[in-house]
């Protein structure tokens, strides 16, 4: 029998003999520019699993040639792309709350299908699981989740999908917000390790892919169209490619101000460096400033000894278009002024705004959210088991609203999101547990914490959704990493965040 080879030259044998070769539930969306075939046409092609498989990395003069030359190293850990265990039946709830949380969740045993959990956030039905939407694969380590501006589509990334040679981005149709359906999945050609997601005004997304196709540096800023098909992996110009080859480019954080035509990506860690064997996690000190209309890098901004710049977000309403960035090593919040110029002539100035204290140093992850009035900022200190709150209404006089010495009832806080009505803060107690293959396994309580935001911006812990308990019998527990909130209180003005 002639052996069939996967595009990354990894042998793949038939995996799902019981699965029909044609799966009508999974449309194919090819991920390489210029190779897209409209879904549903007679020319559509499917692989046996109904998932997209990319071609070999194409040669793009001046862009991919240096990548191919520098990155010809094998992955240290490639896992057998085994099929997932079937999920047990789930009886959907008939309730229709006004506030909904969509939790992008990994099966606790890494064997059952990963899934999107639709959960009520209303007071009277809080924590009720409305529906569970499976994806076709397991072991993806679901990471960040984002929504389109019209609330019709969600996209979730898989942090470790690459290790099982699986698709890395998963799309959900939320036209019916109470019954999300899995739409399709795909992967990029030059990059992997999906992180932050931002919706485009005209439909589609910008997505940071932290690693190369092999999990090394450089990653890419990936762009999709409204259907979810990948159209570009930026930068595509020679100057931009030389920029990301010259210094570690591991984009994790992403913030975009479309009105000012500016974007910022923050470089975190080289994904491959967290897998065994490793000489140590390679952390970055840089952010890239982008001109979004041309998708080009304007300059590189450095935070001295930042040791992993995990997150960056523009401050709503700031007259200078300033952003806040988290430097994980020193446990600090820095302010980025994208339109100021440095003494060396480079665009973009970084200044220390606030030191979060000893408990935040070397905390592995510090993620953030900022209220839409630009008044309050919240930061999760993962290894410090703490959520910090700052009043940033006066950037010259930042006030801390929490007591860093108080022990909070949370373990491993990471993803954080302010509810659209600014009454609550949703924090998830889970970052990453990659198992024996990795040096990165942070403790977590696997709960969604629903905190009250007081009038002064301070926080009070209130209720939780215990995902480990909810799914312990059906999937070996659950690992919720991120969330999108829909607020349908005003049918004329729904909010998707």
TrEMBL record:
Q: Which InterPro entries match?
A: Quino_amine_DH_bsu, WD40/YVTN_repeat-like_dom_sf
Which protein are we looking at?
Answer: Methanethiol oxidase
């Amino acid at each position: 029998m002639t052996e069939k080879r996967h595009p990354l030259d990894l042998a793949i044998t038939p995996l799902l003999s019981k699965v029909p070769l044609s799966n009508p539930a999974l449309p194919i969306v090819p991920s390489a520019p210029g190779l897209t075939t409209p879904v549903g046409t007679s020319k559509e092609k499917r692989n046996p699993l109904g998932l997209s498989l990319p071609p070999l990395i194409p040669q793009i003069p001046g862009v991919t040639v240096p990548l191919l030359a520098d990155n010809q190293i094998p992955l240290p850990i490639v896992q057998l792309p085994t099929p997932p265990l079937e999920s047990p039946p789930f009886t959907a709830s008939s309730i229709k709350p006004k506030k909904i949380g969509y939790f992008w969740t990994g099966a606790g045993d890494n064997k059952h299908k990963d899934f999107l959990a639709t959960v009520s956030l209303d007071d009277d039905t809080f924590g009720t699981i409305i529906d569970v939407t499976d994806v076709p694969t397991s072991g993806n380590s679901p990471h960040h989740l984002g929504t389109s501006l019209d609330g019709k589509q969600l996209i979730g990334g898989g942090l470790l999908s690459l290790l099982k040679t699986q698709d890395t981005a998963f799309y959900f149709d939320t036209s019916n917000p109470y019954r999300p359906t899995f739409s399709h999945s795909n992967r990029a050609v030059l990059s992997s390790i999906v992180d932050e997601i931002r919706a485009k005004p005209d439909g589609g997304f910008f997505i940071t892919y932290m690693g190369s196709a092999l999990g090394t540096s450089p990653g890419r800023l990936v762009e999709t169209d409204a259907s979810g098909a990948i159209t570009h992996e930026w930068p595509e110009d020679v100057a931009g490619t030389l920029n990301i080859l010259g210094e570690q480019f591991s984009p994790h954080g992403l913030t975009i101000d479309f009105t000012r035509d500016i974007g910022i990506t923050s470089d975190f860690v080289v994904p491959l460096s967290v897998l065994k064997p490793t000489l140590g996690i390679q952390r970055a000190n840089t952010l890239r400033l982008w001109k979004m209309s041309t998708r080009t890098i304007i300059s590189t901004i450095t935070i001295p000894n930042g040791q992993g710049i995990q997150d960056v977000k523009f401050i709503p309403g700031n007259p200078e278009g300033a952003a806040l960035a988290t430097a994980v090593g020193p446990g600090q919040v820095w302010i980025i002024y994208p339109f100021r110029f440095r003494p060396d002539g480079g665009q973009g100035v970084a200044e220390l705004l606030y030191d979060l204290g000893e408990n935040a140093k070397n905390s592995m992850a510090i993620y953030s959210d900022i209220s839409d009035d630009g008044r309050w900022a919240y930061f999760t200190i993962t290894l410090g088991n703490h959520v910090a709150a700052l009043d940033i209404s006066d950037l010259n006089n930042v006030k801390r609203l929490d007591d860093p010495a108080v022990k909070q009832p949370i373990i491993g806080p990471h993803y954080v999101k302010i509810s659209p009505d600014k009454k609550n803060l949703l924090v998830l107690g889970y970052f990453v547990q990659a198992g024996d293959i990795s040096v990165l396994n942070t403790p977590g309580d696997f709960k969604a914490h629903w905190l009250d935001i007081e009038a002064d911006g301070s926080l009070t812990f209130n209720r939780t959704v215990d995902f480990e308990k909810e799914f312990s019998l059906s999937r070996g527990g659950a690992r919720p990493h991120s969330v999108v909130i829909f607020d349908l209180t005003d049918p004329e003005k729904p909010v998707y965040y």
